[in-house]
Every structure is written in structure tokens, then in C-alpha cells.
Design a protein that fits this description.
Helices cover 38% and strands 23% of the residues. The protein is of the alpha/beta class. The strands form five sheets. A five-stranded mixed beta sheet has the order 6-5-4-7-10. Strands 12-11-15-16 form a four-stranded mixed beta sheet, with helices on one face. Strands 1-3-2 form a three-stranded antiparallel beta sheet. β2 and β3 form a beta hairpin. α2 crosses α3 and α6 packs across α12. The chain is globular and about 75 Å long.
């Protein structure tokens, strides 16, 4: 392991991150305020503020201290310093969004596409992202990059190892293909990882530090991010394969993916997704065998992952558990497992954001020189 001191530029970036976080928390701040709150000299605070102004990350918004000594310039975070694009490649469509640094979506577009070959999707992504930038509603924002979400195994070096939903059975050097002949840097990541990043960075559930995200749109998958928005990816980015865990049903053990895939639920319990959602939303959930068994399966998943990761919160995203009442029922059933552990305070949450390509945009920011806008 290399151990070294921060370089002057790294130190400036680190301190600027601290100041920017303070400005975002206080809304507006003067150099004198920064000096006092950071317990540094006025000249140091001035240099840091000038550094952020030079990046257009903060802008002057008037003066303060009227009538009390010399007026001070006030500064505010400028989320439109840069724009960033997110792309969500799904089995039936591709969604595009244009976001600012605060995660506010300024432009959204979705297209259907029947040809999901790697080559064709690259062509479509290049074409639509350029059209979105040409018509950007925030033209003053400098384009930072593009983050592309892929349903499948994505390695740290930008290779899609496999994507069953897209029919990509062999490894594809997809990031390399996207960056070929492109003036903007492209990044790619697994879609579940992107969704947890969007929730932890821009979601409405407060400070979702150490967040475990479990999704069940068709198959079941998971993702985990720590308080600094670092993903747990493991060797070859194959961590969080929740579908490979085993759960006990009627004294027999099954792989989670063999019982909680949507098609598997329909086959095993003979119920449609809509009917299952309606049942979870009703008072009959507490006596319905299918609801009790599915909630018990989630309880087993939650207690096992909690024992390993000790998350602050676990977010459940399924097409059949969508209401606070359904989530409360899930909590009640899961507590039968959690009561045996010291992890009873782990929160269960529903997603605060609709599924979108915002996670791809977040990943693009985190892989840029502006990563400190998000990172703590």
C-alpha cells in the first residue's frame, strides 16, 4: 500500500470540498464566515473561495453585514456550473436525462429500440446525447460527461461481462466503444449500482449513509454504497449477488433468484404482479400465504446482509411493495428475524426517486474532477 502526503493540488481540492459542503449547508457564506467556521486564516478562506469561483461552483449573490462594519460578499453554490448526462439502457428502451450538479433533471427523453446490439446502442447513445446537448435548457452549464447504466455484470475497467436482459452473452469492451470518436468522457456501471448512488447522493430520504439497495424488477439484485458514495463491488465487480443467497422455505433451501424472480413468483404462487401488489396493500396481507412467505424471504435476506454490512438503511424496490402499508407489513414480518440480532435499528425504506438515468449522471460526476461536489 502506498502511503504519501497530499500534494498541494490535492490539499486544495480537499479543503475546497469542505468549504463547498459548508456553503451548501448554509446556503450563502462570506469569506469571513468561512474563515471563522473552518478555523483558518482569512487569506486561506479567500484562496479556497477563489478556487471555487474559478470553477464556477460558487457565485456571488450580493453582500452581507449591512451597517456592521465593512460589507462582505456572499457566495452561493452554483449547481449549473456543469451539466451531466445519464443513460439507462433497458431491455425495451433507452432513457436519457440531462442533470445539473444537484441532481435536478432539466431534460428527459426515452426511445424504444428493438436492436440492442452493443454497436447499435453506441450509435443511438451518441446521436441522442448530442441532440440533448444541442437543445440544452441550461446552455451555460459546461458538459461534464455521460454515465451509462447497464443491466448486467460490469467490471471496473468498463467491460460488460454479461447482460442477459440485453442478450449480450459475451464480454463487450463497452466503455471503450462509447469513448471511441467521442469528445465527452463516457463511464458505465451496473444499473443497480447506479440506482443506489442516485438515492444516496440525490434522494429525499435524508442522509442515506451506508445504504443497501435491493431491487426486484424482474430478477433480484442488490447494491451497497458507503457514506462517501463508494460502491461495494468485490472482485470483478461481482459483489452483491443477492440472487445467489439461499433462503429457507418450508424446511427446504432455495436460491433467492429461483423464488423471487417475477416469473418465478407468478409460477410458484400463481399470482400476477398487480394482484400481488393489491394483496400487499390490503388488510388481507397478514393472512395471505403468498405475502407471508415473500415477506419471510425478505426477512431472511435482510438479516443476512445486515449481519455482513450493518447498513444504516435498506431500500426495497419491487413492483409489488410500493406503499407505506406494504412496507410496514414487510418490516413486521422481517422483525421476526431481526429480533435475534443487534441490528434491529436498521431502517427499511421505499425509494424516494423514480427509476431514471440519474444514477448514471451521478456516476459521471464521481468519475470527474468535480467528484468533491458529491463526496463527503
Amino acid at each position: 500500500m502506498d502511503i504519501k502526503l497530499l500534494s498541494p493540488s490535492d490539499m486544495m481540492k480537499h479543503n475546497a470540498r469542505v468549504l463547498l459542503k459548508l456553503i451548501k449547508k448554509k446556503n450563502v457564506l462570506s469569506r469571513a464566515d468561512a474563515s471563522r467556521m473552518l478555523q483558518c486564516s482569512r487569506s486561506t478562506a479567500s484562496k479556497l473561495m477563489s478556487y471555487l469561483v474559478g470553477l464556477s461552483l460558487v457565485t456571488p449573490v450580493g453582500t452581507g453585514n449591512h451597517g456592521i462594519g465593512r460589507n462582505s460578499d456572499l457566495f452561493q453554490f452554483n449547481p449549473r456550473a456543469c451539466s451531466v448526462l445519464g443513460v439507462d439502457v433497458k431491455p425495451d428502451s433507452i432513457q436519457f436525462i440531462l442533470s445539473d450538479l444537484n441532481g435536478q433533471i432539466h431534460s428527459r427523453r426515452e426511445i424504444e429500440n428493438t436492436d440492442f446490439s452493443p454497436e447499435k446502442t453506441v450509435e443511438v447513445i451518441h446521436k441522442i446525447t448530442q441532440e440533448i446537448l444541442d437543445d440544452s435548457p441550461i446552455p451555460e452549464a459546461r458538459p461534464l460527461g455521460v454515465g451509462v447504466m447497464i443491466p448486467g455484470w460490469v467490471s471496473d475497467d468498463g467491460m460488460v461481462l454479461n447482460s442477459d436482459p440485453l442478450g449480450w452473452k459475451k464480454p463487450v469492451r463497452y466503455r471503450e466503444m462509447l469513448n471511441r470518436d467521442s469528445s465527452l468522457p463516457y463511464q458505465i456501471l451496473n444499473d443497480a449500482n447506479a440506482l443506489v448512488l442516485a438515492e444516496s447522493a440525490f434522494g429525499g430520504n435524508g442522509n442515506c449513509r451506508n445504504l443497501l439497495y435491493i431491487e426486484n424488477p424482474d430478477d433480484i439484485g442488490g447494491a451497497y454504497t458507503d457514506s462517501s458514495h463508494n460502491l461495494l463491488t468485490g472482485e470483478n465487480s461481482l459483489a452483491m449477488e443477492i440472487g445467489k443467497m439461499k433462503v429457507n422455505i418450508g424446511d427446504q433451501f432455495y436460491l433467492v433468484e429461483d423464488v423471487l424472480g417475477i416469473s418465478k413468483i407468478q409460477k410458484r404462487w400463481g399470482i400476477t404482479v398487480q394482484s400481488l401488489k393489491d394483496l400487499f396493500d390490503s388488510s388481507d396481507a397478514e393472512t395471505a400465504e403468498v405475502c407471508l412467505q415473500i415477506a419471510d424471504i425478505f426477512g431472511q435476506i435482510i438479516v443476512q446482509t445486515s449481519a455482513l454490512l450493518n447498513p444504516y438503511a435498506i431500500m426495497i424496490n419491487t413492483p409489488y411493495i410500493k406503499s407505506p402499508g406494504a412496507l410496514d407489513f414487510l418490516k413486521k414480518t422481517a422483525s421476526l428475524h431481526l429480533a435475534e440480532t443487534p441490528l434491529k435499528e436498521t431502517q427499511l425504506l421505499l425509494p424516494s426517486l423514480e427509476r431514471s438515468a440519474l444514477g448514471g449522471a451521478c456516476w459521471s460526476i464521481l468519475n470527474s474532477s468535480f467528484d468533491f461536489v458529491i463526496k463527503d
